[in-house]
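Continuing from yesterday's entry. The apo prediction looked reasonable, so today I'm repeating it with pyridoxal-5'-phosphate included to see how the binding region is handled. Same sequence as before; SMILES copied from the compound registry.
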Amino acid sequence: MKTIIEPFKIKSVEPINFNTREQRVKILEEACYNPFLIHSDDVLIDLLTDSGTSAMSSNQWAGIMKGDESYAGSPSFFRFKDAVQDITGMPDVIPAHQGRAAEKILFSILGGKGKYFISNTLFDTTRANIEFSGAEGIDLLCEEGKHPSIPAPFKGNLDIVALKKVIAEKGAENIPLCIITITNNSGGGQPVSMQNIREVKKVCAANNIPMFIDACRFAENAYFIKIREYGYSDKTPKEIAQEMFSYADGCTMSAKKDAFANIGGFLAMREPMLALKCRNLLVITEGFPTYGGLAGRDLEAIAIGLVEVLDENYLHYRIRSIEYLTNKLIAAGVPVMQPAGGHAVYLDAKEFLQHIPVDQYPGQALTGALYIEGGVRGVEIGSLMFGKYDEHKNLIPAQMELVRLAIPRRVYTQSHIDYVAEVIIEVFNNRSKIAGLEITEEAEMLRHFTAKLQPVKLTKPAFAIL
Ligand SMILES: *Cc1c(COP(=O)(O)O)cnc(C)c1O
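Holo prediction written out below.
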């Protein structure tokens, strides 16, 4: 097989600032061992997120110039709406400034005390918006999805048996929505099969529960269906995406992911009364329904991005390049989530740092080690992000302790990726020297963004000096 080349040429470049290991040790300490608190100028390869970090195409930049900034009825809005409708088939399209703004509107209307939202895995902002409304989020990930080292084609699937059980337990009338996250970001960027989407829809429909899609990475999911699911190899990614959305009653989307935009998002749905309520809230919090917190130029960039992302050559390169890094790490014995996900490589920190207990946040400790070794910034998706406390303030850990290295779209080349592999392997070979962390300061919600930590003292004194 020939090398998979980037399906683009580079017209404009951004410099990377280099720094030394000694400088990075100090920078990390000053950032309280939280990569979110490091200045991005101090990062060599930034894999914190694939959100809003895409390189836009020359065509999107041209669209930026064409953006019409009329308050009401801008042609940019209608191009945006057509692009969303072409893929989703949903009549009501509501722009928002990013995915969580769409979520906030939706869950303010449908949420509240005593309500339950079921998902394969809710993304952190989705869960936070659900809980903020007073409702509860329930993740029902399939069994395969819970074992990072065991490969399976569709580890993002929702557990259908568990779905039926939870509906029976909680009562369909208390479940305003079921949300399928494609691909499953918090569960390793793993795809959901068309069969699973169809089955979830069937169970939901039988119980009168609407099914929504969290569509941030719909194109990557569509491509996985094309290459992994029987009966889809001859279909285009667009046809597959259209079929996925055909089963859904609505969707939320962050355009900062698969739409290659630096900002933006939307809500789309089939139920006109719900759309009306959403628009009423939109006007209060985001803006008029034809711009929803975005500039006309952003709407243009999204409209063009939604077409570009379904290009098969792009998706082939995208999925292959994540797989390339994953396979390099597997060959070196590094524990990673298998198979490769759609937008990120996930290191299994529990396996990687077996000497660090979960209440010392092995994932967070690993992000620090990667930064010091090579200036690579990743993010913990484990007990710092999802952990809770019991009544004695003991940690209730997350299901998995992962470190996500999200690859921005169209930004880094193969040599950057080779460098990242070298850094990870070097850290792996010296892993016994990495210490656990303890939290010194934290917020009540989404604590991982701002938490401050410090290394755990390895040896506690046996008795206090009097
Ligand atoms: C990023 C993301 C969101 C939230 O979108 P923002 O634009 O960051 O607010 C919601 N769901 C999933 C699966 C995501 O990846």
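Comparison notes:
- The pocket of pyridoxal-5'-phosphate is lined by residues 51, 98-100, 123, 125-126, 181, 185, 214, 216, 254, 256-257, 265 (CB under 6 Å).
- The two ends are 69 Å apart (CA to CA).
Will overlay with the apo model tomorrow.
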